[in-house]
Amino acid sequence: MRLDRLLHRELPDLPISALQRLLRSGQVRVDGRRVKGGERLVPGQEVRIPPLRLATDTHADRAETRQTPSDAWSLALADRICYQDAHLLVLDKPAGVPVHGGSGQPWGLIDGVRRMQELRNGLVPELCHRLDKDTSGCLIFGLDPLTVRTMATAFRDGTVEKRYLLLVHKTLSPMAGEIIAPLVRGQTRSGERMVAASDAGKPARTRYRTLAHGNGVSLVEAKPDTGRTHQLRVHAQLRGHPIAGDPKYGDREFNRRMRALGLRRMFLHAAQVRLAHPRTGQPLALAAPLGQELQNLLERLQLANAHPPDEA
Questions:
Q1: Range 78-94 average pLDDT
Q2: 245 has a pLDDT exceeding 80
Q3: Does 270 lie in the same domain as 125?
Q4: pTM, full prediction
Q5: Mean pLDDT of all residues in the chain?
Q6: Are the CB atoms for 6 and 41 separated by under 8 Å?
Q7: What range does the domain containing 14 cover?
Q8: What total of structural domains would you count in the chain?
Q9: What is d(CA 12, CA 88) in angstroms, rounded to the nearest whole number?
Q10: Residues with catalytic roles
Q11: Given 10, 33, 67, which residue is the final one in a domain?
């Protein structure tokens, strides 16, 4: 189990933002070591946490504790469910909402999904993977520990196929192929997390094909064979075709042009996932449709008749 998941389970009254601060500041130790929230624990390890006040009389702490998704917002997520059974939940993640809280955001999508499930059926979902804050589309949750473990193995072994739709600058050449470039995570001088290509990085491979192009843009389907942080965004930038609306790796002038056409987010959408059901082995192919904002942009660019990936 990931360390952050264990802490959230054992300390349910601790706000996500407070938990993230404890991890960032090194106050949580595993076998005496400073670790990140994504650290995977094994039986026998010792997790140390500092003394905590889960109830307080200070106004600021009371306000932070109240900052959770409203029941109305959480219940509205039910309209975004792509698939659900007793073990698995696939949600069409909205763009602009981080998966976890932290860095000024007191709660994340996981909090809303858990509240939705609590109000609807009492199940407790756990994330099986992540999407960037500004990415929309298929996000997989497990509804029991065995499903979560099985899905973690599937992602690690590369047996979950993910297909993304992205709008990029200019026409790709070649229009189909693969990008192989190892990636390494780092930080800028201001502390902003960035990913760059480096021979010292972890292997990363992306397959792609152009679905339509014109008016200085290309609509592309991409299949990442590896799941590195910001992989599609950095690989697109390396080829000289940054993703429309990408605030970190994008082209400023291109983004201004797309904003003038109505784009207020990054055009990166997890359109499909294909996997074997973690409990039955039955093949599943699940899809999340493009949001209206992205569809409207394609219409303005005269790319609305592009052929999408095979329907799930």
A1: 96
A2: yes
A3: yes
A4: 0.78
A5: 89
A6: yes
A7: 1-67
A8: 2
A9: 22
A10: 132
A11: 67
